Amino acid sequence: MARIDSDSYSNRVFWTSHIDRSIDPLKSYDNEIDQWIDRLSESRFIQIEYGCGRMQNRMLITDSGEKICARYRRNNEQILGEYYSFLLARILQISNVIPTTLITFNDNDDNNQSKVNFNRWKSVAKILHDQARWETNKTIVLTKYLVDLKPTLIPLQFRSKPKRLYPVPEDLNLTSNQQIHELVQWSDLIILDYLTGNTDRMINNMINENWNPQMMENPVHNLLQQNFNDHKLVFIDNESGLFHGYRLLKRYEHLHRSLLDGLCVFRRQTILNLKKISTMKPNQFAKLLQNYFDRFAIEPIKNSNHLMPVKNFNILRQRIRQILKQVDICRQKFSLWSHHHSL
User: Single Gene Ontology BP term (predicted)?
Assistant: First the structure.
């Protein structure tokens, strides 16, 4: 098979526009999420099944027959990590995170409770309380149920040292459009997981490589691929993001940085969105997050326990600046590289 010229795919440190646009029909994905949340808002849960991961998670089936993954955690930080990771992906226009929303589980019809909320849960509330040990008034995460998914492997560029993706022929002279299609999404994956401090995906493989040298040949933890839709990558189980992951930065930041420092090809739209955030005053960015928080929650959730702590918010802003610094470093490096190789 003929090899493909790397210049067809990257323009200095950004993927070319025709490649970028082919990955992400942004408006259609935003519409898909809005329509999904609208359907859920009008639905009742009438049946449950085991599935969707951990022991207390359940698959909910609505009165229209749609399947939904319900993710229950005793630790509120994991719920918020999942939801805020989704919100950040929406702000950055990264469409690989499954549609996600927040809702309150309610198994009684006290006067203090919303009748609409109780009616939504009425058919399944007792079994969720008795068998799954769900507590009433607990905020949970709902995610869209996707079918026909398969594990995915780490691209060769990131399996061995140096783990890198540079706009140079040896990194981008690939044999198929499918490989490029995946690498574009991997550049977003590294950005998003760096921002959120997610330790449950690529970092998980890197940690376990110390005990199992074959880990980088294994499927990536919490990363799946659709068997349709151009084999789009799906970033699942993001609950370690922004909360638990930030507490582990002292231990694992060197791994996060090794991936970021090795990345020098970016999606232009992702970086433009990060730049836009970086120019905001802290209160403006906080307001943006709150607006997205409210927009994608099925019902108003006003508990102050759901706010991002100031410390975490500041860490996020610092990590945004670090990514933009990396983009500038790459620009300088490959401007010089391009000049040298054109002589």
Answer: cell-cell signaling
